[in-house]
Amino acid sequence: MSDTALADLLFGPNIEDKSCGDCIACCVITNIDTPELVKPEGVVCPHCTGGGCGIYETRPQVCRSYNCGYKRIPSMPPESRPDQMGVMWTLERHLPPRNVFEHLYFVGVAVDDPRSLESVLTNDVLAMLSQSVLPVFVSWNGIKTLVHPEPNLADAIMNPAPQRDRALVKQGREWLKHYAPFARLGGGEHTDLPYGL
Ligand code: SF4
Ligand code: SF4
Question: How does DSSP assign 95-144, residue by residue?
Answer without folding.
Answer: SS-SSGGGSSEEEEEESS-GGGGGSHHHHHHHHHHTTSSS-EEEEETTEE
